[in-house]
C-alpha cells in the first residue's frame, strides 16, 4: 500500500518502533511534509490508540480464510470520534477470491466499505479509492440501447482508464455486474449476447394480470449467467438500484443475491412482474433513478464516468387518434411501424420521470457519455452488435480529449 501511495505522492510508513518516544510535534511535522502517512498498528493497545488519534480513516486488514473478528474498538476508547471516521474492511485473499468471506466479516463490522485484495492490481485500486483518485462507472437503463455500454467499457479499458467501482440501473446494472466481475471484453460480448439475443428473455408471454410476461425466463437467464454469487463477493465495489413500490423509495443494493436484485432492477412495470421480497414490492430502478451518479458520488469520492442512454426520442408516431382502431388496422399499422407497441409504451413510461431527473445529475460526472442511439429501439435486441460498436467508437472519440481531466490528488493519513 505504501508503495502504491508513493506513486501518487510522498508517502511515509510509521510503525511503533519508528514513533517510539516521539512527541506530538514530530507527528505534526511529519504530516505537514508528507502527502500520505500510513500508521501501522499492532497488538499494543497504546500504540493502536495513538494510530487512531492520528488517522483520517481506518483500515481493518483481515485474512479472508479466517473466521471473522470484531473491530478492535479498544483502540478507539480515548478517541470518541474514531468509530465515526471512514472505516474500510480490506479482505486479503491468498489466491483466488474466497466466496462468502465478505458477508461473514461484514456481519461483524456492518455498513462499511470492503475491498478484495488478491494482488498488486487490487492494492492499486484500494490506494486510488482511499485517495479520491478512483474512477467510478455509472450505467443507465435504456432497454436494448444499453448494449452500447458494452462498447463504452471496452473503449475505457483501451484508453487505459481503470474502473475502480461500478453501479447502475436496469440494463445498466446488468452490464455493470459484468464489469464488477472483471469479465474480459470478449466475455462481456459473448455472455450478454447469449442472454439477451439468443436467450430471448421477454418471450414467456402470459395472461396480463400482473405483467405481459411471466419473468421466469429473465430470472432463469440471470441465474445461469451470475450463479449464486452475493453482491459482496464481486471483485470490484458494486451497487444496483431498484424502486420499492411499497415504501415509495429508491433502494440501493450492495449485498444479497446478485441475480435477484438484478431481476428487481430491470423489472419494467407492466412488462416484467415485480420482485416480491420480505413483504416489499420492487420494480425497475429507472422508475425513480435512471442515472445514479448521486449514489456513486455519495459513496465514493473520486471521478465518475457516466453513460446516459437517452430515450426521449423512443416514441414517435404519425397517427392522429384517441381510441384503438379495429384489429385489422392495428396489424397494418404495426407492419409499417406507424404505431408504438405496448412494450415500447410501458418501457418508456417507466423511464420518463426519472430521465428528467437524470439531467440534473449530469454535473456529477466528470466524463459524461451519451452514445448516439436514435436509430436503435428500446426492444431492438437484433441490433446488439451494432449497438456495441456504436458505443465503442463514440466513446473512443469522446475519451480521447478528456483523459487529462481525470484524477485530482488529495492528502490522506491512514
List the main descriptive attributes of the protein structure presented here.
414 residues, alpha/beta, 3-stranded parallel sheet, 15% strand, elongated
Question: Main beta sheet: strand number and arrangement?
Answer: 8 strands, mixed
Terminal residue distance = 10 Å
Which class of secondary structure composition applies to the elements?
Answer: alpha/beta
Range of helix content: 25-40%
| Assembly classification | single chain
| Helix-strand topology string | HEHHEHEEHEHEHEHHHEEHEEHEHHEHE
How does the SSE layout of this entry go?
Blueprint: H1 2-6, E1 11-14, H2 16-19, H3 24-32, E2 36-39, H4 45-54, E3 58-63, E4 87-92, H5 101-108, E5 114-117, H6 120-130, E6 135-139, H7 148-158, E7 165-169, H8 171-180, H9 185-198, H10 216-226, E8 238-244, E9 249-253, H11 258-265, E10 275-277, E11 280-284, H12 293-299, E12 303-307, H13 327-335, H14 342-361, E13 367-369, H15 384-400, E14 412-413
Parallel strand pairs: 1-2, 2-14, 3-4, 4-5, 6-7, 6-12, 7-8, 12-13
Antiparallel strand pairs: 8-9, 8-11, 10-11
